Amino acid sequence: MKTISLKTSVPGPKSQALLARRKAAVPQGPFNIAPIFVERGEGATVTDVDGNVLLDFSGGLGSLNLGHGNAKVVEAVTEQAQRFLHTCFHITQYEPYVALAEKLNAITPGGIAKKTLLVNSGAEAVENAVKIARYYTKRPAVVGFEHGFAGRTLLTMSLTSKVMPYKFGFGPLAPEVYRLPYPYEYRSELDVDGMIAQMHEFFQTHVDPKQVACVVMELVLGEGGFVVAPSRYVQALAKFCKANGILFVADEIQSGFARTGKMFATEHYDFEPDLITMAKSLAGGMPISAVTGRAEIMDSVHVGGLGGTYGGNPVACAAALATIEEMQRLNLPACAEKIGEKLRGRALDWQKRHPLIGDVRGLGAMVAIEFVQDRKTKAPAKEFNVDLVKRCVENGVILIYAGTHSNCLRYLVPPVITNDQLDEGLAVIENQLFHRK
Fold first, then answer.
1. Beta strand segments in 237-315, E
2. What is the pLDDT of residue 1?
3. What are phi and psi of 150, to 5 degrees?
C-alpha cells in the first residue's frame, strides 16, 4: 500500500498562501528545502496543510532518528509539561536534568568517569566544549577541519569551513581558529599515510601544538557530505593529541544516536575522545544539546562559568530520556545498519548506470551520494543535485543535499521507516534520477 499521497501539486494552494505570509513576515535569511507547511507528522511521513502525504528522508535535518510523533516521547513531554515547563536549572534544580546527565555519562563511549553539561543547540554544545577545553588547557587555539560544520554562532561559524551561505558577510571571524584538511579519501590525492603526514606537517606550519586547546572533529562529516574519516587517521590524530596535551572533541551532533549503526560514530573507532558534543536526535526533535567528557575536564571550570537560561529545559530532558529509552528498546542502531545496507546497495547499483554518480559512502544509515560532472575531473555537479532534490520533493519525497559544493545527496531517513516506505521513496528517487518523471 502506497504511503505517498499527493492531492495537489507541491506546493499546494494552502502552502502557497502561507509562503506569501512568510515572505511578508519572515526575513529571507532562513533557507528552506521543501516549499510546504506541515500540519502533522507520523513516523517517516509528514502531511502538509493541503493534505499531501510525503515521505520524510530528511528527518528534521537529522533530529528525528525516532521519526515524527513517537508515542513514548510525546507522553513524556506531556507529563512533564503538566508538572512545570521551566524554572531555570540555575535557580531551582530538577531531577530530569540530573537523570539525563547520568544517562549520557553511561551510554557515551569510554569507561572513564564522566560528567555532562546540558545546553540548547549543537552550536552551543561545540562552543561550550571549546570554552571548557580552553579553560582546562589554558591554551587559546582551536583546530577544526575543511568541509566541517560547527554551527552559526561567531565561534562555531569561524570553525565552519563553507563560506556561502554560512560565513559570507558576517566577519570579522573569531581568532585562533585553524582548519586541517579533512581526510576526504574520494577527493584527496594522498593515501591515508600521506594524510597522516599532512596532519603532522600542519602542526609544524600552521599552529604550534603547545598552543592548541582542542581539535574538533566530525568523524563523519554532516553538512560536509557524509565523508567518513579513515580509522587509522583518527587513531593517529588522537595519539598526536594525547602526546601534545590537546583535547579531542568528537562532534556527534549529526552522527550520534544510532544514525551510523552504533549509538555513536565514535564506537566505530578504537579511541576515547576527551569530550563529545551531542544534539539533534538526542530528544526526538525537542531543542537540547549536551557536552559529555572526562570528569576532571568538565569540573575544571569555576562555578557560574557554564550555563544558560534554558539549558537542560525539563521538558526537553524528559523527551531525551524517553528518546534514549525507545532507541534502546527498538535496537535502533541495528535498524539503521539494515537501512544503510539497502541505501548503499541501491546507490551502488545506480552508480553503475549513472555517469554523474562519483562516489557512494557512509556508515550505517548515514549514507550519501556525491554527484560529479565528470568522474575523472570530479567537478561537482551542484545544479544536477539541487534540481534532483527539488523534483523528488514535488513527487513526494523530502530530501536534502550537502557538501561544500552542494553536490552530495544525503539520506537522513528515520531508522523507524518501514521497508515498504523505504522502497517507495527509493523508487521515486530512481525515477527522478533516470527518467525525470
1. 247-251, 275-278, 289-294
2. 82
3. -120, -20
Contact predicate 369/345, CB 8 Å: no
Q: What are 308's three cell numbers?
A: 544558560
Give the span between the Cα atoms of 21 and 38, in whole angstroms. Answer: 15
Q: For position 277, what pLDDT does the model report?
A: 98
361, 228 in Cβ contact below 8 A?
Answer: yes
How much is the pLDDT for 436? 73
- pLDDT tens for 133-186 read 999 999 999 999 999 999 999 999 999 999 999 999 999 999 999 999 999 999
| Residue 310, amino acid | Y
**Coil, strand or helix at 177:** strand
What is the distance, to the nearest Å, from the Cα of residue 30 to the centroid of all Cα atoms in its chain?
Answer: 18
- Contact predicate 150/249, CB 8 Å: no
In whole angstroms, give the CA distance from residue 401 to residue 388. 9
Domain ranges of the chain: 13-56+333-434, 72-329
- Domain 13-56+333-434 in CATH: superfamily? Aspartate Aminotransferase, domain 1 (3.90.1150.10)
pLDDT, one tens digit per residue, over 249-279 is: 999 999 999 999 999 999 999 899 999 999 9
Supply 418's cell numbers. 518501514
Torsion sign (Cα): 297, 302, 303, 308: negative
Digit-coded pLDDT (tens) for 227-257: 999 999 999 999 999 999 999 999 999 999 9
Give me the CATH topology for the region 72-329. Aspartate Aminotransferase; domain 2 (3.40.640)
Percent of the chain's residues with pLDDT above 90 = 98
- DSSP readout, 334-389? HHHHHHHHHHHHHHHHHHHH-TTEEEEEEETTEEEEEEBS-TTT--B-HHHHHHHH
pLDDT at 121: 97
Q: Nearest CA to 136 among 277, 300, 295?
A: 300
Q: Is the peptide bond before 287 cis (omega within 30 degrees of 0)?
A: no
pLDDT of residue 270: 87
Cα separation, 220 vs 215, in Å, equals 15
Share of the chain above pLDDT 70, in %: 100
Asked if residues 356 and 348 have their Cβ atoms less than 8 Å apart, the reply is no
Instruction: Specify the pTM.
Output: 0.96
What one-character-per-residue DSSP string does 178-211 give? Answer: EEEPP--TTT-SS-HHHHHHHHHHHHHHT--GGG
CA distance 210 to 169: 32
